[in-house]
């Protein structure tokens, strides 16, 4: 399951370390048995304890101080460990016990028990270190047997897995080939006309588009005539960025990693790449027997993605060029978004209403913290051109990555989860503000978007936005790659790509985002609202009338560009809130210029609104978990786990599938989702585990494997969950974070909005009192001059006060932000017992250790694990650190865990 290109030298070093560990254990056990033999004949308790102490000191290399010589050296007075000091003290105590009749025998017994326990704990720790190392050896054998480049079928026993692959793999390959190797019939002229109407009609839009077009033309020249594309620092940056993608095979990724630490190799590679860049106009793909190998990789959602196994130098060159273009387009498009060309979703407040609010409420300017301001800020930060990097060092943005980005930007999984929270929050707020007015949601994406993008569309859009003919030629070579499936062998038939873009390339992201930006702007022109989009996965919401106009703009865009909606993922939901249709309403919150009639042939798309395992339920305006989909993935998880040939790979697959994939696709909790959603997640995860392990727990099952394979008995549950850095296996329990969040979630979304309304009532009363007071005392409201228009001494009605809450209300803003919040995780309280355990830990600089010396630095998950299993671990091993980190191959574990899980089939 785990894929890792582990160098043979590291395997050899690890094997040597494990052998040395076994020698140490054997030596320790031999020494321990010798001590026991020496102690056994002793009948006197004091003599037995003295012999045990001397043997223990010899074993640990601690001097035994004799009492029969005045010339004894002072070695015992030198600096030494806590253990050495303890043993020195015990020698003195036993010397006193031999003479002092008042020295209690119970104290001698305590020393004896401490020594015996120490010997036993050392045996247990050595035994566990050996077990841990055997698990690593098993995993190394697993990755060597089923490593990269070898057929997955070589490690499969189930007849349902054949060497030729699974049925759906062949079906998806055939469909992929039918798309990619067939040219589209897109009308280039129609694309040009569509873009011209959208961007070059006389006025503000044309002016700002011209600036963008001019900027791109200048960029074409400046990039092409760059003196040197790479120095060694640029190359290191490109390597880091490329390694973050899922493009390279494990062998090639290992080669790139080795480049990073060799200055001479870096300089040589940079020189070669600069030479290739200077002759970019004649650049061609590096091929083997006329083509580039491509392979299918299965994703957890059951889909297969096709990756090119391209030359490393090609990959580096294209990544560096692609990042520069991606950053350029991000900058230009953001500038356009921030210009007057992009229409705001905020309602304009008429001048009379502004004057009245200034008279009654002393409002001089728009407040900063409003719902509408938050919408624009969040859209710009998280969803506008989210697939493109802001800087070259940021690297490409994967579709499903949940890794820390190292910047203020959310990772893709966090962005997706935030979108779900935003969707429900907007539905709740819409019903709160406009009860009785229907609110609709549209969700869709494009069918085979990356593979199906017509090259004619790509070139037409690039040309329209100012890309010159030289760069269009380079991009044409990039797109029209000759490809051969690796399963067909080195001499198999190959074809040239006629449609679509390669997976995991920065240039592919740049092309796709530029084209989809056109749809973003088309929807904005039609609705004055935002299309929330994550690559080609897009969402739109608002009144039903607004959604119909938005959908019309999307369908027109798709038709012109020659791409199709994915019907399986296309759907809409209307929260009617007591009325039939927003289209039939006589009054609307839309501006007067937006009230044009709708075409009768355009309606909202049919189908459910789904994401992951979630389905949007109209009746409650909430997401619910689709249990039927869960059942299908339980079977797939069972299938994947059954083909893990090592315990560590089993744990890695379990963590990736159950603790990450399931949990992520259930939707991260938020106050908008409420506590019911957390309970639903908990109950479903419990159901999954019961289905996988009907008569036992996962830890019981792993314990059974340990007994059968290694003869290890009675592994405490906590060991399986314990951090690897402390000698555990780091099995993840996804229920812990949910229970921690459930404990802190004390308000329902309905209660949050009800409190907001209460706050508005109080604000209204306070404003009225303030106004009346100033009228009585000064004859005019405060802060207003005699030239300000007056509106009388009767304070404004409450309905008028509440009219522009999205644009003016701080109370609504606070509720809106609260609904978007993810509940913090409850943190268990530090006890004296926990403090004592942590005090024995060495200082650790790495947060990857999970459980650290400083309790306040430990994450809530690990605090929970420490509180639940700490006593169990300490009782058996004497410390929360089960083994000495130097004794076990933790570096290898870190490398193996960092490898991507390659799913079977």
UniProtKB/TrEMBL annotation:
It comes from the Eukaryota. Residues 19-29 have a biased composition (Basic and acidic residues). Residues 1-29, 63-85 are annotated as: Disordered. This is Reverse transcriptase. It comes from Cladophialophora chaetospira.
